[in-house]
Amino acid sequence: MLAYLIRRLFNAVVTLLVVTLVTFGVFFLVPKLTGSDPALLYVGKQADPVALAGIRAKLGLGDPIMLQYWKFLKGLVIGRDYSSGPDITHCAAPCLGYSFKTNQEVWPLLTHALPVTFSLAVGAAVLWVVMGVLFGVVSALRRGSIWDRGVMTIALAGVSLPIYFTGLVALSIFVYGLKWFPNADYTPFFDNPVKWFTGLILPWVTLAFLFAATYARLTRANMLETLGEDYIRTARAKGLKERTVIGKHGLRSGLTPLVTVFGLDIGALLGGAILTEAVFNLRGLGYFALNGIRTNDLPVILGVTLFAAFFIVFMNLIVDLLYGVIDPRVRLG
Amino acid sequence: MSIGSATPRPYLEVKDLTVRFETDDGIVQAVSESSFSLEKGQTLGIVGESGSGKSVTSLAVLGLHRTRSNAKVSGEIWLDDQELVTAGDEDVRLLRGGKMAMIFQDPLSAMHPYFTVGSQIVEAYRVHHPGVNKKAARERAIDMLARVGIPQPERRFNDYAHQFSGGMRQRAMIAMALVNDPSLLIADEPTTALDVTVQAQILDLIRDLQEEFGSAVIMITHDLGVVAELADEVLVMYGGKIIEKGPALDVFQSPQHPYTWGLLGSMPRLDREIRDRLTPVKGSPPSLINLPSGCAFHPRCPYAGRNGDRSFTEVPELRGDRHKVACHLPAEDRTTIFQQDVLPNL
Question: Is the ipTM of this complex over 0.90?
Answer without folding.
Answer: no
